Structures
1.
Amino acid sequence: MKPHQTGRVLYSAEQIEARIPQLVEEIEARLKGREFVMIGVLRGSFMFMADLLRAVYHAGLHPQIDFISLSSYGAGTVSSGTVQLTRDTDLELHGRTVLLVDDILDSGRTLAFARSLFLERGAAEVLSCVLLDKTVPRAVELEADFSAFPVDDRFVVGYGLDYNNRYRELPWIAELVF
Ligand code: IMP
Ligand code: MG
């Protein structure tokens, strides 16, 4: 098979591995012992979610876990502007503290959609944690409570992030060169 043609590595596997426990410390400090539910946004968050969960375990935290599938991108690199719910969560969220986990915060629409959905269902609080925070103007008013790394306005892949469902398996985050 042809090797992946990706551009510059922005964050290496080692950098990601080192950053995740720090992120968990920030989360722990903010939650102050409160019980919480971790909800990953599929599919982009799966690798981050798995590593984050191992660090959460080592920090002595034991959240309930669920996933939601949301889609807005289709096959391109520009958000369609509408978010679709394609797989819902199973957990009862009433009165719960939710930690939403996504791969990247870009326009903000995906996280804003999930946040209002969970608040409508009675969640007491919805915090968000993203691997990457794209430093671009948001289409909606939303900032992540926790983010591992900033990234400027470029299309990135790897460590769960895809382009047409490829490159998700890369252990690092690289720029995609078109
Ligand atoms: P938002 O709704 O515009 O904030 O976009 C969030 C979603 O768009 C993320 O969950 C990703 O799936 C996708 N996305 C945004 N930027 C990138 C990128 O650079 N690479 C891969 N996916 C991206
Ligand atoms: Mg996504």
2.
Amino acid sequence: MFRFDEKKRVFFAHAKDVSYIFSITDKGYLRHLYFGAKISETDSLELLSKDFPNSFSPICYEEDTIFSLDVALQEFPTNQRGDFRSSPIVARSSNGSRVCDFVYDSYSITDGEKFPSDMPHARYGGQTLTINLIDKVKKLKIELNYIIFEDCSTITRYVSYKNLGDEDIYLERAFSYSIDFFSKEMNLITLAGRPAFERNVEITPITQGVKSISSTCGASSHILNPFVALVEKDISNDYGNAYGFNLIYSGNFKTSIEKSSLGDIRVLGGINDESFTALLKAGESFDTPEATLTFSANGLNGLSQAEHDFVRAHILDERYRDVERPIVVNNWEATDFRFDTDIILDYIDKASEIGVDTFVLDDGWFGKRDDDTSGLGDWVENTTKLKGGLAPLIDRCKQKGIKFGLWFEPEMVSVDSDFYRQNENCNIGELDRLPAKSRHQLVLDFSNPKTVDKIFNAIAKILDNNDISYVKWDMNRYISDNFSSYLPPERQGEFNHRQVLGVYDLAERILNRYPSLIMEGCAGGGGRFDLGMLYYFPQIWTSDNTDALERTKIQYGTSLAYPLIATSCHVTHSPNALTQRQISWETRFAIASLGAFGYELDVTKLTDEEKKIVREQIAEYKTVRSLVKNGDLFRIFSPFSDGMFCVSVVSKDKDVAYVAGMKWLDAPNNKHVIIKLKGLDDNKNYFVKELGLTLSGKYLKNVGLPIKNGYDFAQISLHLSAVKKVG
Ligand code: GLA
């Protein structure tokens, strides 16, 4: 709920466990007062309105109080008016000036969520506070939008920049939010990595100066995820204040964390300002992506649970909320490009014997695509490889009672393709410079709506003529040669952003036309794992690295910000194709079961014994599927610090829990590990299936369960269900 106290000129936002408060100063600047655990409006905020300027701080005005922008905690700082910290906006007027000075003009509170145009956004039942700030000299208005949802501890923010004058204004930086924290020792958590090793947890102290987390890859990237957290120094999984920041965006982003000379911390975020300029002609507006600001007082587990609740309720499409995700089998690791109709029919027959819901045909079914050097852009069946096209395969799936899924890579084109030959300048890059290839492919110019139209029509033809329930949408390279021959010179600074808008437009149109389709996101594994993608794709292929041990780190890091059900996790062959590590079926299952589950292996080569194992695993996954989708995640052991991985998922009513994980290396005479369970109800008794024992919630929490020594990479798997109340 939002409220404005007219007398004190204070705005209050209260959501589930969180309050966010700011005020308007005498001269119309927005002073940030508070973001954290819920507090009462009767508490005095006067004390928070004191500044302590230092001897070099420019003083804006000196009446009742001394006010200096350089030291005040602000809501949306302004550029080159005496605040020497970073600012969320850099706007150049036609006279070349970048000085900005925004002061309060008006506000409105509306039911429902406002959202940035043409972009994914938080949805389903929000309330919006809009604050209008105006720079009268620059004739620029900024509309700060805040959105809250009563059932979550997340506040979202985005900005609309509007040119009120007659002259052009160039936005050289147009971030989505800024927030200041009063002097505090805090650590920064980032999710860092590289292809096939995405989203590893890094924790660093925040020291004086600026630290930026960003992408220039044209995608949110494998390298640094847009999610960051600021946490108290002594944070644990269960205790301490934690703030999470994320962007509902999939392109180049930047989050800056700055500690001032006084120890205050400023966090700014939005579209990366590197190689970015947006032109605002008279009367034009520019909307930023929406950012999410989440708070928990209950440590990292509390923060993740708050993030997960928000994503499940307000980012993921509600059409997937009450249906279980399909258990898929994908042929990529079994066949790569080398298949024909007979091979795939045999694969489908064998897949149906192990009990999966959906068969997904990966790369290689279209155009001239026998390897990765050709065919992208030609979304027509390759009838040399597949006699009769997709129809016989889909018919066979129907006979066998499973659904059919198909792989696309819509944003890309091969030079050796009919699409490239027939569509001049369809790829990005300057016309007189050879664009860099990556995986032999070029990037289509999605800032040009005509190119998006053509790809939409080609994909729609396949989806119209075939019964396809699932699409895997891939993106196998980053963006270089960032230039569109469609855009005029003065709009080239918007290219990266417009390219992303083209991707969103295509995804939106496909989902509107095929409402029962489920799309899985992918970018060479998890190279575009972000809230923007999750708006359209309720699950994303987490990583091309499917080695269970490596996956513990990747999935652990990903789960800090994103719910388990958003992470596609498949059991693959052992030894693993990338690492050659051998890990048992049980352990591979334990790790892959913590997500949207499936298999990616050669089902035609499974022995009868292995088929039995897989059938049993699928049956077991079905018993935890809705828990994994809807439950609360608790981390117990971290692969980053404990040499093992263990988490539990507990149902919201605390009646059921699933504990899964794996030990790493074992050694002779090792001590048993004790797993103390989290999130259970102290006053309930739980039957532990694997032990055949009933124990109280209090016992399980305080005493815990010993896990036997075993062998390297041994799995952990426990199923608990409440039996009756302790009297
Ligand atoms: C990417 C994906 C893989 C597979 C291949 C196909 O690498 O991450 O899962 O789809 O492309 O080319």
3.
Amino acid sequence: MNITLVAGARPNFMKVAPIIRAIQQAQRDNKNITYRLVHTGQHYDKKMSTEFFEQLSIPEPDINLGAGSGTQAEQTAVIMMRFEKELIENKPDIVLVVGDVTSTMACAITAKKLCIDVAHVEGGLRSDDMAMPEEINRIVTDSISDHFFTTSKMADENLIKSGIESQRIHFVGNTMIDTLYQHLNKLIEPRIYKEQNLTSGKYFLITLHRPNNVDNPAKLKELLDYILKGSEGFPVVFPVHPRTQKVLADIAYEHERLIQTDPLSYLEFIYLIKNSRAIITDSGGITEESTVLGIPCMTLRNSTERPETVTVGTNILIGTDINNLENHLKNLQQNIWKKGAIPELWDGKTSQRIVSKLISLYGGKNI
Ligand code: UD1
């Protein structure tokens, strides 16, 4: 069987890396399985893409579609046109898309219109927040996918509710956590750690990149002011996403305890999570990583598509009411935080389960 794997933006890279490893293992075990890796080029910087390929030992993509930046529609259109050509030239048995970024949706639509089966890794997640482009990407992708590899039973239920037969839903766990376990003993201390005299458990780590948190300069300033006020005099480390960087530069935001850096590589970023006092974020993936690492996490959103990080893990939904943040930061000061546990099947073996399932579904035979 031939699979085309799609990776487009930063959070995709941690998800495809262990799947490729599992395919390579299956090949060593004489299974009849080959793959092509397509990078859409949605993220293209060294910091947002190249370093992830290097650190996670992802092979060079077979093709880079060079989509680059643009509006949602522009990115979708360019990716679809170029991916269609790729699929016509190299027709696989199945296209595997991961996550919820624009590349995920664009490539799923393109494949399905060419009557090629689509499998969605991380299918079934729902935030019910239609203001998030990712929610639209999830709904569209799931509405046309043939198979769903899910991270939680809640995701399975969401798919069942939308009318998908249970035989097409495969609860396998979380590929991001495969990558986390595979790299835990290779973490790299970022340069700023020594430069800024950071010590374990004595700094906050924040990430902000959602349009509704960062695109309005006044809102971003207010958020940062609150975080700095509530952070107990500890340093606040802020690796800044390119989108946020543009707004921060416009308002020239600075504070003596705020340590701004460029986006960090995977191994550096996980090092910072693992040693932080707590995380404040609007990302989804980081809530999963902090859950597994047992680090308190506050999410600056009203909803999450990853509810198990709240019901099982260390994450608390703060919402957009900034007073809420203050209350939770006070609890943290008094060491009042839930301990959290690791969600079911987040055991580092998800990618093996995905590849075994694909082989059983698409007829990979021993050769
Ligand atoms: C995308 C994903 C989001 C994910 C995030 C992680 C969608 C809809 N959103 O959002 O789910 O959490 O990636 O990073 O797909 N830029 C660069 N260099 C790059 C890539 C982007 O400078 O390598 C700049 C672009 O010029 C643009 C901004 O960053 O101004 C946003 O990039 P884009 O890919 O549109 O979406 P993200 O906000 O990164």
